[in-house]
Amino acid sequence: MKDDSRIVEDVQWHEIETKKDGLGGKIKFRKKKDNYIFVKICKGVIFVLIAALSGGITGGYISSKKYSSAIESNNSSFFQSNKASTGVNNASQNPITRVAETVSQSVVGINNSNDNILDGENNYSGSGIIFKSDGYIVTNYHVIKGTSKHLVKLSNGKNSKPFNAKVIGYDSMSDLAVIKIDAPNLPAAVFGDSSKVQVGDTAIAIGNPLGDEFSGSVTAGIISAVNRNIGIQDPSTGVTTTYNLLQTDAAINPGNSGGALCNESGEVIGINSLKIGADENVEGMGFAISINEAKNIINSIMKNGRVIRPDLGIINPEDYVSEDKKTKGVFVKQVKDDAGAQESGIKANDIIVEFDSVKIQSKNELQDIVNRHKVGDSVPCKVIRNGKIIRFNIKIK
């Protein structure tokens, strides 16, 4: 017999009709198909609502985390805080206009005197860049050199008195100085990464030349060259330090010294200078100290009030080449008392032919290796003395 139990559908009791003769009843059945479909639809709607709600919460959380990470990343740098904001919709402006409106707020005018110039006189000698919102400003050392009074005029303070600034420290070799004014919540510039700058990039120079009427002056051009190495000799030691400069055809006037050289994003990529590379400052050739070079110097000034450079203690070294041109090195003319070279045993007339396991052919090569070390390092050295090779370990001071 065929089993029909598998095809019996779920039913519910509905109604019993009694026969007239009272002998029996008839049972009527109604399927639950309509209720079943309704329940399925409700479940589907609830599932969609839950999925949409959870997706929205998850998406909001991820977006919030990414936004927080972006803000954290932008504020993590010592130099990237309090970026100026103009409150103007810049979407339709060209990059130079946007940069000018933003960065010019962080560029100040600097006037110097020996207490014989009255406040308010338009006798500005240079520019500076606010890099910390509590009043720290970087400028060229030659802007403040030889003067006792330093007056700083903010870009939005044409009708207000200038601030008196105190000198935090300076470095004459790199021509950089840090000064400070007592003013809170200033618009600090954002320092970029000059290693990413390429020839042909847009260069925007901002400064305050020639007084209030020319404050926030903007010139634009391109980056003409990168990694222009200019050697500056310390007259006291004869040691030459090489600095990395950016070359631009954007006009840099005397009053622009200490001002900002920016990229299209409004990041400072260089500090305008007319002193370093001054012999080459001709029309269409301006120079700026690359910001990566400047960052290390600024940090050292902020920490120590000056730049502490590693020093061997060798005075006025000279390049050496033997008569047969087979031997090259650095000739030691004189050593400083109590310096690393003297304490290690280096003497006048020695010829340094190897330093830190690298063969040396010039004093610039020697100094480059020294600059890669820090004060306190002990570095192996090989010299020729009276025709004999002698090895030393020199402690850098």
UniProtKB/TrEMBL annotation:
Q: Which SUPFAM superfamilies match?
A: PDZ domain-like, Trypsin-like serine proteases
**GO process annotations (BP):** proteolysis
Q: Which domain of life is it from?
A: Bacteria
Q: Which GO terms describe its molecular function?
A: serine-type endopeptidase activity
Q: Which organism is it from?
A: Clostridium pasteurianum BC1
Is the DNA damage keyword given for this protein? Answer: no
The record's section on InterPro entries has:
Chloro_Bact_Ser_Proteases, PDZ, PDZ_sf, Peptidase_S1_PA, Peptidase_S1C
Instruction: Describe the location of the PDZ domain by residue ranges.
Output: 283-387
Record-linked Gene3D superfamilies: 2.30.42.10, 2.40.10.120
- Does the keyword field hold Protease? yes
Regions that span the bilayer? 37-62
Q: Mind telling me what this protein is named? A: Trypsin-like serine protease with C-terminal PDZ domain
Q: Which UniProt keywords apply?
A: Hydrolase, Membrane, Protease, Transmembrane, Transmembrane helix
Stored Pfam families: PDZ_2, Trypsin_2
